[in-house]
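From the pipeline queue, job 12 of 40. The input is one protein chain; the requested action is below.

Action: predict structure.
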Amino acid sequence: MKISKKDALMWFRFFAELPEEEEVSPRQLELAYAVFAQIERAVEARREKLMSEIPGLRNLEGRTYFVGPEDKFPNGCRSCLLGTGLGAIRKTNKCNIACPFCYNYGELDCQPPIGDGLWEIGGAKYAAEDIPLLLSIQKKPTGVAYVYLEPFMEIAEYYPVIRHFHQAGVHQHMYTNGTLANEKNLRALGEAGLDELRFNLGAANCADFVIENIRTAKRFIPRVGIETPMTPEFFETFGKKKERILGTGLDFINCAELHLNENNLPNYLGENLYFSRLGYLSPIWSRDLTLQLMKTAAGEQWPVAVHDCSNRTKFVRDMHLKSQEGGWFGASTYAMEFEKIPFAAFLPVLEDESFPFVEEEPLPPGFRPGDIVI
């Protein structure tokens, strides 16, 4: 059903005005899904054009896109997309700043603790001294990632755990906003055996002292890069400080497509949004900015890998992870992150005259104005 933009807007205005407790019917949901498909088709058409303009665009075994030297492509991403999947280790339930794009925005002060002296690995709790036993019993992962808010809030707790995984030959990467990093703790991370450190440079809006922390990290840690949700603010500030950032000697830039949940969606209401495969919800401009940055990087031959860490990549990631876990054919955890579809959030893109649908058809019988759709 290639619904017209006019009909789509009419129906979504109706859906947006429904009482919160009222559910849409299966046939109404069919209309809604048709609208989401039309928006996504239009988004993919503009992305195909943008990608055709990127010289030297490459893919990693068909699973994601990047430009730049292949040997600079982060091994943490290789593990996620080609190895045993994304092995997340959770510890720190606090952060020292509040970013509007954070998945936990508005709830940073009430995140559940993992437990004193404990680490969450694979959904279970372990003490640092349990890790050698765990590695001796279960299949060793190709890589693990330290996630869950800001690890530098208690970075000394991480050193013993990193040593255990390093001794076992497991690749390890960590995410940080970089504001609490310094020469002492970066040196200690390198000595413990951390392989890869990723700075969310957008968290501090490319602050000069965080850029210098990237430079310092490169002295002690084998691979250092940036992983930041692509926003207009980050894109603009990065452009102004490009030479200084590239001059740090970093290895890669992971351009994460900003995806929204119920916590951070209110910060982006009024933007043109789309659902990717009825899963992640994102501002349309986020991946557009990534592709613009990749085009510049390829044209200017930056000595770094610039990775298109898009919703498509996350879609692939979850399929791959389930396959590694022995899931059935088609199994994936990639899904919509809303209990109810936020219909009102799509009114801006449907009202935007500069965003045309690729192809439109009249509504079929039973869905036209005046028909009862139940």
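Job complete. Residues 67-261+284-330 form a domain with the TIM Barrel fold (CATH 3.20.20.70).
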